[in-house]
């Protein structure tokens, strides 16, 4: 099994200092009352670029040699990784190309263009977009910065786990959105390294749970990419997986799936009760608590991972006009 060390996350912490925001942890009175135990929200959706992906991308770029930086970086992205990568590249004057599928919402595409990246929209899946990225690596010599399955990315995301244990030392359970697993692998490595008794729970959407299906099968499984309110949790975990699948298998205590209507409820809850605008992918932890799919978690921290929702979609969710991308009322 390939894994990364707590030391690598400590190094990432140093590399990120002053470049990313240390996001606050706020108590949630409404969720605490609901489950009868203290619930706190790690407000990582308030990170610059609107998601935690900035941490991994910044760490990866910081670790490049001057020669590599001069040739530029390329990423394949459902949106938030591209935005984080473009921002981190711009800060260091590094050229950046971002390849993505047509399923990525236009608000995310526009935001990445605005950061000066060369945006390339290819095909209907991340795998199609990856072919173009591979070409840029082979022909232009750019460095591929993957969205999750890379030690520097995992270590960068892991810094969130360190911050949580420092800010809430008596935390018993941390609930984390799960897609490719870079976020939860890094966080779980940090959290278990600091206190192995803390439970880590991963939550993903029923529509396209690639990591969950692959771990059940014991090998990489392709799942169909279908529209979901949690668009930033879409995509597969392959075609190869060197780190995150084994780390999620070994470090994550429980995995939970939530439905589109549970995600919609959670986005509404975040807005109405917490005064937070979050995207569907960031709402799955709240969805898991509100639906009762996780329980007996004790003092709990939920990671709100991103804010990059199309505001028109957000308005329709809040007004109960939709419970999913394909379920307009
Ligand atoms: C990428 C992303 C996730 C999932 O992170 P993985 O490392 O792929 O598991 C969760 N929430 C948001 C907002 C994201 O952008």
Concise overview:
The chain is an alpha/beta fold and 329 residues long.
Keywords:
binds pyridoxal-5'-phosphate, 14 helices, six-stranded mixed beta sheet
Order of helices and strands: HEHEHHEHEHEHEHEHEHHEHHEH
What percentage of amino acids are in beta strands?
5-15%
Largest sheet: 6 strands, mixed
CA-based shape: globular
Q: State the distance separating the first and last CA atoms.
A: 47 Å
Cα radius of gyration in angstroms? 18 Å
The hetero molecules present are: pyridoxal-5'-phosphate
- Average pLDDT level: 94
| Tally of helical segments | 14
Would you report the number of β strands?
A: 10
Class by helix and strand content? Answer: alpha/beta
Give an account of the 3D structure.
The longest helix is centred in the middle third of the chain and has 17 residues, at 151-167. Helix content is 44%, strand content 13%. It is an alpha/beta fold and 329 residues long. It has helices at 6-16, 29-35, 53-62, 66-71, 80-91, 106-114, 126-140, 151-167, 182-194, 210-217, 244-251, 260-272, 284-290, 311-318; strands at 25-27, 39-42, 73-76, 96-100, 118-121, 143-144, 173-177, 199-205, 254-258, 300-303. Helix 1 packs across helix 8 and helix 8 (151-167) crosses helix 9 (182-194). The model has no long low-confidence stretch (mean pLDDT 94). The strands form two sheets. It has a six-stranded mixed β-sheet, with helices on both faces. It starts with 5 loop residues before the first helix and ends in an 11-residue tail after the last helix. The relative contact order is 0.16. Bound molecules: pyridoxal-5'-phosphate (PLP). Pyridoxal-5'-phosphate (PLP) binds next to helix 9. Pyridoxal-5'-phosphate (PLP) is lined by residues 51, 53, 80, 148, 177-184, 232-233, 279, 281-282, 305-306.
């Amino acid at each position: 099994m390939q894994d990364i060390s707590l030391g690598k996350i400590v190094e990432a912490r140093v590399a990120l200092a002053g470049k990313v925001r240390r996001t606050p942890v706020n108590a949630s009175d409404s969720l605490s009352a609901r489950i009868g135990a203290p619930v706190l929200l790690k407000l990582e959706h308030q990170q610059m670029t609107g998601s935690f992906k900035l941490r991994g991308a910044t760490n990866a770029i910081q670790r490049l040699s001057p020669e590599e930086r001069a040739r530029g970086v390329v990423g394949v992205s459902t949106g938030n990784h591209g935005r984080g990568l473009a921002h981190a590249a711009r800060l260091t004057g590094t050229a950046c190309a971002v390849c993505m599928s047509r399923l990525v919402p236009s608000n995310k595409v526009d935001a990445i263009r605005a950061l000066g990246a060369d945006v390339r929209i290819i095909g209907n899946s991340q795998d199609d977009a990856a072919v173009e990225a591979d070409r840029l690596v082979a022909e232009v010599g750019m460095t591929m910065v993957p969205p999750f399955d890379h030690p520097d990315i995992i270590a960068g995301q892991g810094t969130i786990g360190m911050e949580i244990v420092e800010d809430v030392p008596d935390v018993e359970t941390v609930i984390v959105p799960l897609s490719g697993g870079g976020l939860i692998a890094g966080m779980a490595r940090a959290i278990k390294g600091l206190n192995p008794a803390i439970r880590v729970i991963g939550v993903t959407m029923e529509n396209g749970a690639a990591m969950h299906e692959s771990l059940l099968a014991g090998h990489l499984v392709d799942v169909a990419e279908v529209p979901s309110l949690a668009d930033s949790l879409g995509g597969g975990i392959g075609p190869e997986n060197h780190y995150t699948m084994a780390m999620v298998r070994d470090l994550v205590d429980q995995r939970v799936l939530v439905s589109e209507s549970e995600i919609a409820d959670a986005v509404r809850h975040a807005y109405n009760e917490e005064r937070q605008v979050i995207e569907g992918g960031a709402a799955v932890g709240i969805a898991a608590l509100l639906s009762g799919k996780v329980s007996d978690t004790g003092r709990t921290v939920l990671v709100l991972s991103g804010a990059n929702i199309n505001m028109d979609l957000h308005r329709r969710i809040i007004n109960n006009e939709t419970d999913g991308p394909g379920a307009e009322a």
